[in-house]
Design goal:
The protein is mostly helical. It is built from three helices and no strands.
């Protein structure tokens, strides 16, 4: 529940219902798309392909976190 709460903090009170519904639609839509895609890939190519293809988004997420962490790190002044 942390991420939806953070999304709502960025908007005015009159926008919160619309923003939360859009956020939920995007999140659950992507979950549905991912389930359908992985089910089709599992049926067509097998479990090893599904596992191997899951490393690509994982690597992208780790890279994005590292870039974000280095961008937020304050410069060391000596």
């Amino acid at each position: 529940m942390g991420a939806p709460a953070l999304v709502l903090e960025c908007h005015r009170p009159d926008e919160k219902a619309r923003v939360q519904s859009l956020n939920d639609f995007i999140v659950f839509g992507m979950m549905t798309f991912g389930s359908l895609l992985s089910g089709g890939r599992l049926t067509s190519y097998g479990c090893n392909t599904v596992l191997s293809s899951s490393f690509i988004p994982l690597a992208i997420a780790i890279f994005a976190l590292l870039v974000s962490a280095t961008a937020r790190r304050p410069a060391i002044v000596s």
